[in-house]
Fold each of these.
Amino acid sequence: QVQLQQPGAELVKPGASVKMSCKASGYTFTSYWINWVKQRPGQGLEWIGDIYPGRGITNYNEKFKSKATLTLDTSSSTAYMQLSSLTSEDSAVYYCSRRGAGTMDYWGQGTSVIVSS
Amino acid sequence: DIQMTQSPSSLSASLGGRVTITCKASQDINKYIAWYQHKPGKGPRLLIHYTSTLQPGIPSRFSGSGSGRDYSFSIRSLEPEDIATYFCLQYDILWTFGGGTKLEIK
């Protein structure tokens, strides 16, 4: 079955960077786009960007272009997102999801990023 | 950018009852809307895509309809496991989420 595994939480200091992972299994990793989505406490979801493992193509929401960097390790079927220059505004749950059926069909459980000194 | 206005933000209904959630897009999204169920600590679960197409394994008491800018999602015969937050997602042009609806059982 399709699974996207994400670590549960990351505690990071203001000004630092964090790189979170999304390990895919149960399907051909290189055939489906991976999306990244942000959810701040009590707020709605925001699309950050996506990456196509088959070719390494990326698309970013303009709002996150200077904040997020999407990369891959196809040998381990893992997608990564790095967030830089972290502030309290970056404290949120970050989800990865697969693009299938035209939309986001499978999601990870999310990584909670806490930015605190 | 396309905006999605979802309502209500919360609702309470009885077991066995029916609820309807709406999403209004800021422009025609050509039926490219999906609906999700989200429970705390879990990833969202896709229920419906392309307005009304049920994902495999999703009970038929979940349904969706609409066109143009106006879309709705309904659950009939509410069950205790339906307690969750539901949200819409337009994927006609990039991706925009509705604000979510928290469903509680009376």
Amino acid sequence: ETGVTQTPRHLVMGMTNKKSLKCEQHLGHNAMYWYKQSAKKPLELMFVYSLEERVENNSVPSRFSPECPNSSHLFLHLHTLQPEDSALYLCASSQEAGGRLEQFFGPGTRLTVL
Amino acid sequence: QQQVKQSPQSLIVQKGGISIINCAYENTAFDYFPWYQQFPGKGPALLIAIRPDVSEKKEGRFTISFNKSAKQFSLHIMDSQPGDSATYFCAAKEESGGSNYKLTFGKGTLLTVNP
């Protein structure tokens, strides 16, 4: 595996379900990000982790709970979601959080909340 | 408040033509302006980026033009090809600021290049 991988690629869940999205980066990076991509809206930064420490929580509802157990893995735990949470969730990584350092994106998880 | 405004929302160009996508920003502290390209089923990938110390940057068929006084920047794709059909996002960041990991994105432009 190379780059940034995300699983599952597609997820359909009911509003009462609990599920988790997984991201893994194979680039040796120290920073990881979760973004939400909705149709006709700008990408929204949700969370940033640097060396497994959360450095940004961009006013995201508590029904989204991130976890970064090590610098290569990032999870997004989902519970009691709303239909408006349906979107493409993108994970990204960079060598460090910030500066002149490119963010590399994964292919995303397409989430549908029924 | 949308800090980076991108236009047009969609664009259709004939093969060999020039594609032009425009972005305008409000925050004068932005000092890094990347463009991302996203194909269906893939995440965005960095295409080209510019910093305000230059007014133009060219990489192959892709050129960014930057106008600091007007707070605008644009992407030009010369000799557009069907393989360029994708969604393009402009973005901006304060590289020197405290939250220097935070990219602010435009809404995206869906480019279709007809053969």
Amino acid sequence: GAGVSQSPSNKVTEKGKDVELRCDPISGHTALYWYRQSLGQGLEFLIYFQGNSAPDKSGLPSDRFSAERTGGSVSTLTIQRTQQEDSAVYLCASSPLRVSSYEQYFGPGTRLTVT
Amino acid sequence: AQSVTQLGSHVSVSEGALVLLRCNYSSSVPPYLFWYVQYPNQGLQLLLKYTTGATLVKGINGFEAEFKKSETSFHLTKPSAHMSDAAEYFCAVRETGTASKLTFGTGTRLQVTL
């Protein structure tokens, strides 16, 4: 079946602009995660959605970052007033959360470059 | 809090040689452990996982890893490296029984030479 998809694959934006990154999880996966991968920081957790529960936002680096998940499926990560340090690859993952399967399946990522 | 340490940011092996990538973790509860591989300009692909049961786990592409609780380690091995194994490898830990985040190591870039 189809894997996790993310769009756009690449995004170049000017400092101060807002950007939206989209993630389509694997159908039926109840959990969705956002991570950021950057040269200086490695792979960092940003936010996690599980079903109808309140999201775990503990990894968001500032209040310029927000995310939502509509209808338990598609998720959008929004970065307001982008800064150069926001340049990174943003990875989305989903998980079925069956007892026998706790792994996360990752999308190809969105490479964000802030100029 | 959980953490993962991967010793060696770069490892170089000859084709056909043993691959050993080291991972040590710290966790206050029994962990789930994962190895992911990332090829250039691609997302992360799961190589193998340890959740419960047998401590030696086999994954894709001939890789395997052994969970050693006494050493808090989960080293990744492959008996014979292939050129196509060149990639970045990430070890990750997650608390058992929760649907929580993965905590990743800093990654090890594997180079395979002729």
Amino acid sequence: DTGVSQNPRHKITKRGQNVTFRCDPISEHNRLYWYRQTLGQGPEFLTYFQNEAQLEKSRLLSDRFSAERPKGSFSTLEIQRTEQGDSAMYLCASSLYPGQGVTGELFFGEGSRLTVL
Amino acid sequence: AQKVTQAQTEISVVEKEDVTLDCVYETRDTTYYLFWYKQPPSGELVFLIRRNSFDEQNEISGRYSWNFQKSTSSFNFTITASQVVDSAVYFCALSEANYGQNFVFGPGTRLSVLP
């Protein structure tokens, strides 16, 4: 295991369907982040976990979005009743948080591209 | 609140020219971290450098150098003798130590290095 793994890499779905993405972080990393990136924009923060606890969720995040990290290892991001505006690249990243406010760098996966028709 | 501004949307240079990418940030925290990431055409974001707010020393790594100035809230990135392989989108990011600790990214600067 040398990096962050995301699947599926591509997902095409019809409006109204539910989709789920999975992220496997670097094994020793205790923090896991989800971002969304649309064409020509920077990554937009969605949520992050420290171990299994979800510590922060963007206020911009619709209640159709939910993320879990049940055992503090892999994470899933589910989008219910997808809309065309959800089409984007969903990025997962992990980092090591040694504590006391020290922030480690993020290591990103290759992303999961969602297209909603 | 955290904010990162990268005023240059796109830059084009000819190979071997030097180029500087600007990054200006806003933060309410006294302890924070600044980052630069590269996103090549393949799409995966690649970490380049991390800087904490207490370390204003400039850093050089090969053809890359970074200039951190707290007085102007800037963290600029210079590529010396640019190469075609440097063509990518470059993102500056900020993470506050005491407020949420999520990472906020700037909108990115697309660098095109022409042969």
